[in-house]
Design goal:
alpha+beta; elongated
Length: 181
């Protein structure tokens, strides 16, 4: 459950990247286009490096490096298309699992219209993981990926649903015994 590295080739150029941390991934998925516009390429590529023709690896966290190194070899593809391909690879590597992710089903009898209190500025998934001591803030910022965080969140939800079902069964059993059955 550590953030993994991934190497890929787009438009004839070699790249390597690392999974976003849980905190970074949720920040991107929660990004409000009205507040800051679309996620900028240097944010998408913050953890990505490109291999230069000389064989050196250069970080794409700076816009000037994106301009200098993200291109097609041979130059049959426009640079903006090459950039879109690289961003799409990074996006897919970090977020494609969300296309098939399904939240833990919670029986409707356990769902209320109560609005839970939340910590401002902390995503509810991160808040739950921290609150249940499944991960520290530092772990979520440095060690765990978004995929890891969703897995831990699912496990936490499943544990809560199973505890509610067990409590419900125990209550019904207690009532049945109290009635003499």
């Amino acid at each position: 459950m550590a953030r993994e590295r991934f190497e890929f080739v787009r438009c004839g150029v070699h790249y390597r990247t690392q999974e976003f941390s849980a905190t970074e991934g949720l920040a991107i998925t929660s990004h409000d286009a009205k507040k800051g516009g679309p996620v900028q390429p240097h944010h998408w590529l913050r953890l990505t490096e490109v291999q230069t023709p000389e064989g050196e690896w250069v970080s794409l966290s700076q816009p000037r490096n994106i301009d200098a190194y993200v291109k097609a070899i041979p130059a049959a593809v426009a640079p903006h298309i090459a950039l879109a391909e690289v961003i799409d690879a990074v996006r897919g590597y970090n977020f494609d699992f969300l296309d098939t992710w399904k939240p833990v089903p919670v029986p409707t009898r356990f769902v209320t219209d109560l609005t839970p209190r939340k910590h401002e500025g902390v995503h509810p998934i991160l808040s739950r993981l921290e609150g249940e001591h499944l991960a520290s803030r530092r772990d979520l910022q440095e060690f765990y990926s978004l995929r890891d965080a969703f897995g831990m969140f699912d496990a936490s939800c499943l544990r809560a649903v199973n505890a509610a079902l067990a409590a419900e069964k125990a209550e019904l059993e207690a009532k049945r015994k109290a009635k003499g059955g």
